[in-house]
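Morning run. Coffee first, then this:
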Amino acid sequence: QLVESGGGLVQPGGSLKLSCEVSGIQTSLGDMGWYRQGPGDQRDLVALIARDGTETYADSVKGRFTVWRTNGRKTTKLQMNNLKPEDTGVYLCYAHLLVGTDEFWGQGTQVTVSS
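And here it is:
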C-alpha cells in the first residue's frame, strides 16, 4: 500500500512537499516516484528516483522539483518549489519492485496552484 500526503492549495510561486509511505510490501523496491494524472488513464511522469539514487524529472519541473527517498528507501518525497498553475493535478505515488514486474500506485493527492 502506498499512502500519499501533503497536497493542497497554493498560490503561484509557492511550495508544497508531498510524501509517500510504503507499507505491506516486504520485498525490495526499485524505482519510486511521482506521476500526474492526465485525461482518462494517462499518467505523466513528474519525477522518479531509482534505488541507487538516480533522479529523473519531466522537463517542465527540472530545477523546481526535487525527489528523494528515506526510511530505508521505502518513503519518497517530492519538494515542489515555484509552483505554476500548470502543475495543478492529482499526483500519484509509484513504486516498482526491484525484481519482477509488479508495480504499485497510490490513490493520489490533489495539488492546486491558483491565485
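The chain is about 0% helix and 55% strand. Good start to the day.
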